[in-house]
Each structure stands twice: as structure tokens, then as C-alpha cells.
Amino acid sequence: MAHIFVITPQKSIHKAKIDKNITKVHKGFSSKNAASKVKFFDAVISRIEGLFTGENKPHYEKVQCVVIGSPGFVRENFKKHITEQSIKK
């Protein structure tokens, strides 16, 4: 599950909630887990892009940081994935 907030000096605004099931790692089936993580990460990235492009582009230009919090190594995996996607684009 991912929540996207816009934090301004006055308030925090909840913009989106992304909820996807990620398959558990089973012996010999780690590729399904990796594929479901990639789908989840892509959903988060596309939602962020949707919130800050088009008519919302002036808001995107004001973004100064992105805070990523998660259990385990999901944060590092997401950061790696988003960096790889930005290089591709």
C-alpha cells in the first residue's frame, strides 16, 4: 500500500492511495514476487506522474523532495526502480 501526500507549509493533503497485492516469496517462485513488485512500483510512479503533469505541472515544479518510508528493503528497491525508470525516460 502506498499513500501519496502533498505537504505544504500550511497543511498536508492526501492525494492518492495505491493498494496492490504483492505475492509472497516461495521457494522457486521469486520471479512472481519480483514481477508483482515492479507492477506496484509502476502504479505508484504513474500515479505520481499523473498528479504532477498536465494542468498540475506548476505544482510539480515546486516539488523539493520525496519521502519514501517502508518496511524492509522496499524503500531501497523503489528508489532503485524509480531511478532506473527516470534514466529510461
In brief:
This protein has 89 residues and is α+β, with helices and mostly antiparallel strands.
Polypeptide structure, described:
The structure is a single chain. The protein has 89 residues and is of the alpha+beta class. It has a domain at 32-89. 47% of the residues lie in helices and 15% in strands. It has three helices and two strands, in the order ββααα. The protein has helices spanning 30-51, 57-61, 74-88; strands at 2-7, 12-18. Strands 1-2 form a two-stranded antiparallel sheet. A hairpin with a 4-residue loop joins strand 1 (2-7) and strand 2. The two termini are 25 Å apart. The model has no long low-confidence stretch (mean pLDDT 80).
What is the H/E string?
A: EEHHH
Rounded to an integer, what's the Rg over CA atoms?
A: 15 Å
Count of helical stretches: 3
Distance between the termini: 25 Å
Structural class: alpha+beta
Biggest sheet: strands, sense, closure?
A: 2 strands, antiparallel
**Share of helix, binned:** 40-55%
Percent of residues in beta strands:
5-15%
Report the principal-axis shape: elongated
Care to count the β-strands? 2
Report strand order across the widest sheet: 1-2
Low-confidence stretches: none
Output mean pLDDT: 80
Give the tags:
89 residues; two-stranded antiparallel sheet; 3 helices; 2 strands
Topology:
Blueprint: E1 2-7, E2 12-18, H1 30-51, H2 57-61, H3 74-88
Antiparallel strand pairs: 1-2
